[in-house]
Protein 1
Amino acid sequence: MNTAKTKYIKLRITVVGIFFAICLASIGAKAGYLQIYQSSWLAKKAADQYERPFKESGKRGTIYDANLREMAVSINITSIAAYPPRILNKNAAAKAVAKALGMDTNLLKRKLFSNKPFVWIKRQATPNEVYSVKSLNLEGLGFLSEHSRFYPQKTLAAQTIGFTGMDGNGLEGIEFYYDTQLKGSDREFIVLKDALGHGFNSEKTPEADYSGSNLVLTIDQAIQYITEKALQEAVADNSAKSGIAIIMAPRTGAILAMAHYPLLNPNSYEKFDKHLWRNRAITDPFEPGSTMKIFTVAAAIEHGNSTPNTIFYCENGEYKIGKDIIHDTHPHGWLSLEDIVKYSSNIGAYKIGKKTGSEALYRTLKDFGFGDKTGINCPGETQGTLLPYKKWSAIDAGAISFGQGISASPLQIISAVSAIANDGVLMKPFIVQAILDQRGRTVKRFEPAPVRQAITSETADAVKKILMTVVTKDGTGFNAALEGYTVCGKTGTAQKINEKGEYAKGKYISSFVGFAPVENPEIAVLVILDEPMKNHYGGVVAAPAFSKIAQETLTYLNVPPKNRKTDRLTVSKPLEKNKVVI
Amino acid sequence: MVLFISELFIYTWCRVQCVKTGYEISKETDNNLKLITLQKNLKIEIARLKAPRRITKIATQQLGLIMPKSEQVIIIP
C-alpha cells in the first residue's frame, strides 16, 4: 500500500513537474521571442510612454549696423491657440477670451465651433494679453512659444532692411534677399516625461547651434539718422510728396545710409501703404535731369572732343530743333563747357552731346553703369533705361546729354558720381559687409570690388574742377556749400512723366548729387525730392538738404575741416546758459 | 536573499536619484533659458535706448545741446 501510494505521489509530482516545466518552457520561449524578435518594437512602445518629441524652429539671425548695433532682432513671443474639441463650454470660453483680448466675440465663436482640431486665437500676443487669457484657467487653450521679428530702431532704414511676415519669412529688403542665410533651421529633440506627463531632462542642444546667420551692414545708424532727419525736414519744408537720400563711400562703394521719406515702421508694416514698403532707391528708375550733365562733360573730355574751356553758343535761352524747343532757365550766349555745367544750360549740354557723338556718349554712360544693374546685394534692382545708340533718334543724343530720354535709379546715379570722386574707378555698391555665424565668426566677407575704370583719372580731375564751380556763389548749387570742406556737386530738376508718357506740367523731381571733401572724398551724397510744391529747382530744394547731411556726416566721421578758423572748442551760443556743444 | 534585496534597494535608490537629478537639470536648464532670454531682452532694450532719434531728442530738448560747427570740432588724433 505504502509502495503504491509512494508511486502515486511520485507520479503526481512528475506530472506536476512536467506541467510546470512545460509552463516554464512556454514562458521561456515567449520571453525569448519577445526579447529577440520583438525587442525593438517593444522598446519603441515603452519609449513612447516616457519620451515626448519636440520640434522647434531656430531663431532668425540678427541684422547689425556697421558698428554692430542691432537693427533687426528675433524675440520670443507667445501665440494663443485653441483645441476646440477639448473646450466644454465654447460660448462662455469665447466670451471670456474675447473680452480678455479685446476681440470680436462672434469671430471667436466661429473659430471655437469649427470642426478643426486646432485654431489660432491670436498670433504673437502681447505679454499682458497672454497673462489675461492664462488667468481665465480655461481647458483647451494652448500657449505656444514663437519667434517674432523686432526692429528696435523702428523707422530707421526700414525700407532698406525690409521686414518679415507672421511666419518669419523675409518679405522685403535685406530680410528678403538674405532670407536663406538669416533663417534658422528646424530641429527635433526628445524630452523625457514622468507619470504626470511633466517633461524633464530634455536633450536640448544649445539654441545658437540652429539659429540663422547674422548680417553686418555697411549702414551706420548715426549717419542713417542724420540723413533721414535732413530728408524729412527737406520734404516738409518744400511740401514734397516723398524723398530719397543715399550716402556712399566713393572709394569702396559701401552704402553708409539709404533713407526714404515717408517713413515706414517695419514692426507694424501692414498699417502702411504698400508703395512705402519697397526700397525705391534701388527699384525705381527716373529721368535724372541735369545731373546727367556730369557724365556728358566727362564723355566730351574723355573722348578728346572738348576741354573745359571749349565754348558753345547757348542761343540766348531758346533753341528750336525740328518741332521741339529746348529752353534754359536763364538766357546765355557763349559759355565754356565749365560754365555750361555751372549754370546748368540745357542748350549747352545738348550741343556738347551732339559734338561728342552718340557712340562716345553711349559708351561713357555704359562705362558709368547706366543701363545695367549695379549688382548691389538688395532685391528688385532696376537697370534703368539706356537704349543702344543705334536706336537713338536725331534728338536723343542731345536730350540724353541733359538727362531726358534716359532713366536711372538713385543708386546708379550715386555710384556713377562716386566713380568721378574715386579717380574714375566705378565701384560695385554693397550694403552687407559680412555674414557671421551664430557664434559671431565670419562666414563670408564682402570686400570692395572695382567694376571698371569708367574714365581716366585725368578726366575725373577735370570733371571735379568743373563740379566745384557749381557750388560757388553764382553756381546753381551754392546752397550745397559746406563750412570747412570743399564740395563737388550738380543740381538736377527733371519734369515728371505722366501715365500717358508725356511730361506732366508742374510735377518735378528735384535732386542734388555731390561729394566732399574734393581732395580726399569721404562721402558721396544724393538727395532727391519728388514733386516739391514750393519750388522745384534742385539747387533750392535738394542742395540745402545735401549740405546738412554732408556737414553733419563729415563731422561725425571725424574728417578734419579745411581752413579751420579756431582750434578751440567753443560754445555756439555763449550768451545762452546751459547750452553745450555735443 | 539578503544580497538580492540589497541590490533591489540600491537599484531603486539609483533610479530615484536619477529622476531627482533629471528634475534638477530641467529646472536649471529652464533657469538658464530664462536668464538668456532676459539678457537678450536687455540687449534689445539697450539698442532701443541708444537709438539716435531718442538720444538726439534728449540731447536737444532736455540737455539743450546743439550740433557743433566745423570750426568747433576738435579731432583727437
Protein 2
Amino acid sequence: MDRLTKFAAKLYPRWWRERYGDEFAALLEDARPGSAGTLDILRGAVAMQLATISTMRTIVIGAITGMLVGLATTFLMTPQYSSSGIVSVRAPAGSSQADVLRTIKTRATYVLDRKRLENLVFKFDLYRDERQKMPTKDVLEKMRQNIRIIAAPSAAKALEVSFDYPDRLTATKVTTYLVFSFLEQNRRRDGSFAVGPEDFVFELLAPATLPTNPVFPNRRQVALAGLGTGLALGGVAALILRRRTPLAA
Amino acid sequence: MSDPTLLVLASLADGDKHGYAMMEDIDSFAQVRLGPGTLYGAITRLEQRGWIKPVASSNDRRQPYRITGAGREHLTEQLSQLNRVVKTGLNRLKEA
C-alpha cells in the first residue's frame, strides 16, 4: 500500500476507522489500488465525512474557513497606508469664522494646485503604474482623492492633512510636503514672514506620522466579515446535510 | 446496473464474502470494478440499514459479510422492479 493510499484511508472519520479500519486495510493489501483506486478512497473519505459531520462542526469549519479565506484575500490586495499631520490656525483678533474659513480655503487651493501636485507626483515618482495607463489629469484627480484636509478631531482650530498611499514611507514624505505647503504661505509677498498679530498664521502642531498598519485592507474587519460569512454558509451547509438521510446512497 | 449497494447485495446473495471477494465477484458477474472507497461506502450503508451483517471469521482482518432477511427482501424487491423495466424496455424495442 503506497503512502498516498494510506493517507487517503486516514481521512475517513475516526468512528469509521475504528469500525472498518482493519478490514479496509486488508482489502487494500489484496486489491492494491492504483491512482484511480486512491482517488476513489479519497472520494469515499470525503463523502463519509460529509455524511456524518455534526451540525456544530460544519458551522465551526465554515466559520474558520471563511475567516482564513478573508485573511488570505487581504494579502492579495494592495495595502494603503495613511500618514497625517496637524496644522494649527491662528487668526488675527477680531476676524470672523467666515474669514478663517476663507483663508483655509485659499491655502488649501494653493496646496492642491494642479502644478504643485504634478511636481509632487514626479518628485516622489508617485502612481507609476497609473501614469502608464491614464492621462495626468486623471492621475492628479486620483491623488486629490487620496488627500484629506479636515478639521482636526484632536485639536481646536487645527487642520488634519493626510495622504493615503501603498508605500508608508512615501505617504509620510508627501504628507510632510503637504503640511509644509500650508506653512509656506505664512511668507508675505515681499518675502517677510507673516507672524504678527494681524496675520493668519499656520503652525505645525504635529508632524506627519509614519504609519505602521495599513488603513486598507483592515485585516481585522475583513477577517470578521469572513467569519460571519463562513458562519452563515456553514449554517446553510449544515441544514442541507441534515436534510439528507445519514449515509444515504 | 451500477448501484454499488445493489451489487454488494447481489454478490452476497449466494453466500458470505469479505471485501476483496465481493470486489472480484462483482467484477465477474457485472463487469463493474468497484473502487475500495465505493465498496466500503456501500458496505457501511448496508450494515447501518440492517441489510447485511458481519459474521465471525477465523481471519479477523478479512471480515466476511452476510445478507440479512431484510436485505434479501430489499434485493428481491429492487431486482423485480429492475426486471420489469428490462422486460418492458426489451418488448418495446421489439415492437418498434
Protein 3
Amino acid sequence: MNRKAWLAPYTWEFVTAQNAVLCQAKSALHKPTSDGYEPAKELWESRHAEPMSLDEAVEICRQCHRLAPFCFYNGNTFTAIIRDVITNLGLEEDQTVLLRSLAGHIVAGVASEEEAKAFRKFLNN
Amino acid sequence: MDRQGRGGIGGDGFSLSYLRVNNVGIRHKRAPADAPRESRHHPTPRPDRHPLGISGLRAGRPPFQRRLCQGDVAQELEEGFIDEEVRFPPLLFSEDALVEHPPTCKENSVFYARTLLHAKKSVFSMHIHGLPDQIAIPSAFQAFGPDGHLVDPKQEAKVKALGVALAGQLKNEGAAVRLWTLALGGRWRYLFSMDRAIDPKLASNPVFLRVMQDALSIQDRFSAEPVYARTGKGFLKSAGVKEIAVAKVSRKPGKS
C-alpha cells in the first residue's frame, strides 16, 4: 500500500470533538486525562499529517488509544477513524470488511499476532 | 407560569419556566435589617400562611414532598439557579421546623420556587434550553393581516426582537440545533446536543459526521473505561459474523 497522509483530515480538534460526541451520546464525562492527554496529543499532532504506510497509521491510532487521552470512550474514537480510512480505500466490499475488522481489532488492542500478521500481509500484497 | 411561579408544567409553560425562576415571587420587598426574620420575608403575614413561609405543602402529605423541601439551597445559589438576594432561613428546610409548623398554605413562593428549580435542573439535564422570553398574541385570528404580518406594528416589533434574541441564543448554543437529530440505523433518533466547545464547522463536516455515525454504531462493543491503558489488554465485544456474511452475499453472482 502506498505511503500517504492517511490521517491528515483527522485533526486533533476532530478527534476531541468525536470523543465529546461519543461521551455525550452515553452521558459520559468528556474530559482529558491528566497523564494521557498531552502525550497522545503530541503524538497525533506530530504524526497525523505525515505520509505513512497504512500499517503505521493503524499503529498511531493504537498508540493513542493505549495512551487514553480522554476519560471515556477512547477505543471507538480512534477505531472509527481508522475504519473510515480503510472504508475510503476503494477496495472490494469483502476486502474492506476484512481489513476494517482487522484494523479495528488492532487499534482496540485485542488483535492476536496472527491477525496482525494477516493485516500486514494483506497490505504488502 | 406567572411571576409567582404558579401554574402547572405543561404547554408552553414548561419551556419558559426556567428563565422565570429568578423572578419567582420570593423576592419580597426588603424589610429593615433589624426586623424579625419572618416579617422580612412576609411583611403582612396572613393567618392561613405558614409562619416560615413554606407553601404548597400540607401536613400529612407523603414524605417525598418534605424531602423536596430539604434540598441544598446553598448549592443552588452557587449554581446560579436562584438569585443571591433570595435567602431562605435555614430553619425553613429542617425536618423539625416542618414538624413544628406543618405547612398548610397553597399560595406563594417557596414550594413553587423549589419545584421550578428542580424542573429547571431536569430540563437542563435533557439539554433543553428555554426560550429567552415569551410573547402571547391574543385573538390571533384578528391579529394577522392578509399578508401574514401582524396588524399592530408594536407587536410585530416585539416578535421580531424575540426572534433576534432567540437567534442569538441558538448561535451561542453552537451546533446543538443543527445536530439534534441524526440518521442512524435507518431511524431518526435524538442522539445528542453537541457540546458548545465543538467547532460548528466540524459539526457540518461530512467526514466528521461519517466517522461519528460509525463510532456510534460500534460504541456498545467498547468499554467506556480506558481498559487498554490500565491493563495493556483491550476490550472489544464480538459483533459475530453478520458483517462478513453480508459482504459475502454481495459478492455472489447477480448480487453485485
Protein 4
Amino acid sequence: MLLCSLLLASCASNTARASSPASTTYIENKGSDTMVNFALAWAERYQALRPDVRISVTGGGSGTGIAALLNGTVDLANASRRIKDEEIATAQAKGIQPLEHVIARDAIAVIVNANNPVSELTLQQIADIYSGKITNWKELGGEDRPIVKLSRETNSGTHVYFLETVLRLGRSDDKTLFATNTLLLPSSEGIVAEVRHNPNAIGYDGLGYVPHDVKMIAIAKEAGGEYVLPSIETVNDKRYPIARDLYIYTNGEPTGIVKEYLDWILSAEAQEIVAKLGFVPVE
Amino acid sequence: MEKSLNWREFIITRAIKASGYSAIVFVLLIFFFLLRESLPTLTRVETSSLLGTRWYPIEDYFGILPLITGSLVVTLGAALIAIPFGIGTAVYISEIAPRWMREILKPLVELLGGLPSVVLGFLGILVVSPFLRVFLDLPTGLTAFTGSLLLGGIAVPTVVSVAEDALDSVPRAYREGAWALGATKWQTIWRVTLPAAKSGVLTAIMLGIGRAIGETMTVMMVTGNAPVLATTLGSLFSPVRTMTATIAAEMGEVATGSTHYHVLFFIGIVLFLISLIVNVIASSVVFRAKKRAERILS
C-alpha cells in the first residue's frame, strides 16, 4: 500500500517537473481497502491526463475514509458500504453534507474445483455449507466428498460482506457464524490455489480475481428462483445476489477539479480500469 | 602507563558487564510491555469466555484454547520430525561421515537454516500440501501436519548445528577409551558420545522447538488457520490455527486499544510463557545432568 502511494507520489512529481505547471491542485482520496487498487489506478491515469492535478490515495478502510471526510481532511472518501446513520448525524453536527456517488460495483463469486459436478446453489445452501450444516457434496447432488470451506481472514472486508450477505442472508438479527473448521486464508491467491487443485474445496473471491481454471457457481436468491452466474451484466441488472455498490462520498455537490475528476471516474476510460482490476463497471 | 591500563581495563569490564545485563533488561522490558498491553484483557473479557472454544474476534468471541492447542499440535509434530532427523544428521556428520563429506554437509545444512520461511511456505502451498492431500487421502492438504513437516525442516538445521558442536566437543579420549574396551562404533555413539554431549544436545532440541513454536509465516500459509480445538491425535491431520499466525494475521488491522488488540497481546504473553516453561525445563534437566556428570567424574 505504502509502496504504491510512494510510487504514485514519485511519478506524480515526475510529471509535475516535466511540464512545470504554474499551479498544482491537490485532491485527497482515502478509504476502503477493497477500492484502493482501482482508486490508485484512476489517480495515476488522471494525473497523466492532467499534469496540474495531484491526487493522493490512501487506504485504511471505509470507516477511516468516512471519518476523514467528516474531519474535513479529504475531498473524496471511498467506501465499500453505505454511510451509517450515526456517521450522517456526526457529519451534520460538523456542518458537512456527505453526498453519495456509486462509482463501481463489486461482486463475489463462489468458486469450486473445475471437476466438481455441482454448478448451481441457492444462497441458503451456501449459508448452510459455511455454517457447517451441510458437510458433504453428495447432499448437494455432487460426489461423495467432504466439503472443505475456504474463506478470507476475518480482517478482510470481503469476509464481513460474505458473512452478512450470505451466511446471515442480510438479516441483522441473525447471529450465524462461520463453522470453526472453515479455513481462513490470508490471501485471494491462497483460496484460488487450493480450489484449483482440491476437488473438495469451495471458496469465494472478488469476481474479477477468479481465474478461468476454476468453476463459478450459479446462485439463486431462493429455492426455485433463477440460478444466475456472476458477470458484468447480471451484476449491473441486480440479478446476481452477492454484489454490492461501491461508493465515493463528497462533502456536498462537488465543484471545480473534484467535480471534473468525479465525472471522469464515471467515463468509459475510467470504468475500463475498474473492469481490468476485477470489479464491475457501472453503466 | 599503569594507570591508563587500569582505566582501560575498567571500561572494558564495565562494557562487557553492561552488554551482559542488557540481555536481561531487554527481556524484562519486553515482558513488561507485553504485560501492560495484555492486562486489560482480564478486565474486559470474562475468563470463561477467554477459555472458550470459539475464536471469532470480530464478533467478540475470544476463546484462545483452540489457538493454544493448535500451536501445541503443530510444534509437537515438528519436534517429532526435527529431533530424530536433527540428531541423526548431527551424529552422522560428527561421528561417521568421512572428512570430505563433513565439509560438504555442514555448510549445506547451515544454508538450509538460512532459507526464508516464506519460501518454505510457498513450497508448502504448491507442492507439499497437494501431495499430502492425495497421498494421505485427506479432505485438504492444509493441515497441522503440513505445518509440522515444514517447521521440522526449519528446525532441523538449528538442531543439527548445535548438536553437532556439542558432539564435536566431546574429548576424543572418551571414544578411544570405548573402542579400546571393544565397543562397536554404534555402542560408542549411543552409550558414550551422546550421553557425554547430553546437555548440548538437549539445548539443541530446545532451540529447535523454540524455533518451531515461534515460526509464523510458514504456518500461516499452510495450516489452514481454522480455529478448531485440537483434542485427538486426528487433529494433526486437520486444519489448525496457531497463536503466531493469529497475531500476525490480525494485528495489522486491529484498532489500537480495542479489546481485540489487548487479547492479541495476551496471546503473545501466553506464547512467551510457554517458551519460558520449555526453557526452564530444559535448563533444569541440563543442570541436573551436569551435576551428575561432575559427581561421576570427580
